[in-house]
Automatic annotation (TrEMBL):
Plastid listed as a keyword: no
Organism: Gracilibacillus caseinilyticus
Pfam families xref list: Glyoxalase
Superkingdom of origin organism: Bacteria
Listed PANTHER family: CATECHOL-2,3-DIOXYGENASE
Protein name: VOC family protein
VOC domain span: 10-126, 168-281
CDD domains in UniProt: VOC_BsCatE_like_C (cd16359)
Lineage: Bacteria, Bacillati, Bacillota, Bacilli, Bacillales
Keywords, alphabetical: Metal-binding
Gene3D superfamilies: 2,3-Dihydroxybiphenyl 1,2-Dioxygenase, domain 1
């Protein structure tokens, strides 16, 4: 099953704010492997396949450095099509001197690093969904050490040629102010289902039995406040729904008292922690 296409609801684009647009474009092209789809003086839409923009970087006026201990972006996650691609990317990171964190999550193998502004990035590949273990509606995930020796046997030094065309935005992970109100908003308002939860510290939600399209945590502190509007970090992210399902989602959001703005045929909402979400189809 493809967990990142309609009719499943998925994260289709992330828009982040950066301090220096030229520096960021160079990083995302040379280190991560994106191509530039569109460019202005202060923004760039980045693509893997040359057609679809999955990451947008913008330099706001009077931009401030990314603020700590706030709500907003923990990381966005770029999903590679194969384990071989992930191994080739590891060889590439060695060649360019990029420091990595890494985890085996049982459902996936993941690498972690940050861009020059401190925006968190995950690059990962999914294990075959037939190997995921479900206990009812909850999927087993872990934070185990990644077996680099085994992974690197899949790849080849020098084989990395940038992000493969089949690369998609796999998920987003957010800092939020608390779990109970967040859970209510994303389930009752946006229509997601909880597939894993770690007390009142972290929540993982998805559609279509994916291991998670959105992660949510309170690791920056319960009651954390949103960052300044012109701070580097998350600007907004886009959820793509099945055709015309947005109309029902807007009704659900208003029924729980959420803010919904509709303008020029587009809808947007704000979660209880100030994270802005664009609703698309």
């Amino acid at each position: 099953m493809n967990f990142h296409q309609k009719p499943i609801t998925f994260v289709s684009n992330i828009t982040i704010k950066v301090e220096n647009i030229d520096r960021s474009i160079a990083f995302y092209k040379n280190i991560v492997g994106f191509n530039v789809l569109k460019r202005t003086e202060t923004s760039a839409e980045l693509t893997a396949d040359g057609i679809t923009g999955i990451l947008t970087v913008e330099q706001p006026e009077a931009v401030l450095p990314k603020q700590g201990r706030t709500t907003g972006l923990y990381h966005f996650a770029i999903l590679l099509p194969s384990r071989k691609d992930l191994a080739n990317f590891v060889y590439h990171t060695v060649d360019v001197g990029l420091e990595l964190g890494a985890s085996d999550h049982l459902v996936s193998e993941a690498l972690y690093f940050s861009d020059p502004d401190g925006n968190g990035i995950e690059v990962y590949q999914d294990r075959d969904p037939s190997t995921w273990t479900w206990n009812g509606d909850h999927v087993n995930m872990a934070v185990d050490p990644l077996d680099f020796e085994d992974l690197l046997q899949e790849g080849e030094r020098g084989a990395w040629q940038g992000l493969p065309k089949q690369t998609v935005m796999g998920h987003i992970h957010l800092h939020v102010a608390d779990i109970p109100t967040t859970k209510h908003f994303y389930e009752k308002g946006l229509g997601f289902e909880t597939v894993s939860q770690f007390g009142n510290q972290a929540l993982f939600i998805s559609k279509g039995k994916y291991h998670h399209h959105i992660g949510l945590n309170t690791w920056n502190g319960v009651g954390a406040l949103p960052p300044a509007e012109n701070s580097a970090g998350l600007k907004h992210f886009t959820l793509t729904y099945a055709d015309h399902a947005v109309e029902d989602v807007v009704k659900q959001l208003r029924a729980i008292g959420a803010i919904v703005e509709q303008k020029d045929g587009k809808a947007s909402t704000v979660d209880p922690s100030g994270n802005i979400i664009i609703l698309s189809y």
